[in-house]
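Example 9 (inverse folding). The structure is encoded as follows.
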């Protein structure tokens, strides 16, 4: 197992207070990252239930840094860390936006090293969808993991006709 360090940066057209809530409110985290149980304070537990994994798994961590609207750090029991840093920036359709940086350090099995960054990019796309009012539907993704590749982050399912050949029907039956 190797330790992998990754950094992801996104700009969301929402104020830091809104993005912050999406990082610390269990109901909101459940709409973009994984089903969550969170005690939003320094030392609080941060538990994620990964329902789309086969078999479903649980990650347990503790909040080691809790600076509202600025930084949230979670350290897991297997020494993984997630540091979310928020900076208010001007611009965007609402006049203010948030630059979010996510630093992740985690022991990763070599077989999963290439998949982990893709999973984070997808999760951050889901965060964008959640902020626009379209949380991820984990039940659908768990029942049909292939749907994860066709679900768009804005919560709109891709039209199967876009990815599959159309079949012709006889006009009379």
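The amino acid assigned to each position is listed next.
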């Amino acid at each position: 197992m190797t330790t992998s360090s990754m950094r992801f940066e996104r700009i969301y057209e929402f104020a830091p207070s809104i993005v912050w809530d999406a990082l610390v409110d269990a109901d909101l985290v459940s709409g973009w990252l994984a089903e969550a149980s969170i005690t939003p304070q320094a030392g609080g537990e941060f538990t994620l239930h990964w329902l789309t994994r086969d078999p479903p798994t649980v990650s347990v961590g503790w909040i080691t840094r809790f600076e509202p609207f600025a930084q949230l750090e979670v350290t897991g029991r297997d020494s993984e860390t997630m540091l979310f840093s928020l900076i208010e920036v001007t611009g965007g359709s609402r006049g203010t936006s948030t630059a979010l940086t996510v630093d992740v350090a985690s022991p990763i099995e070599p077989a999963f090293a290439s998949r982990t960054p893709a999973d984070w990019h997808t999760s951050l796309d889901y965060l964008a969808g959640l902020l626009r009012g379209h949380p991820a539907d984990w039940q659908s993704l768990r029942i049909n993991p292939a749907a994860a590749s066709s679900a768009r982050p804005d919560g709109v399912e891709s039209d199967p006709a876009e990815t599959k050949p159309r079949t012709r029907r006889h006009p009379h039956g």
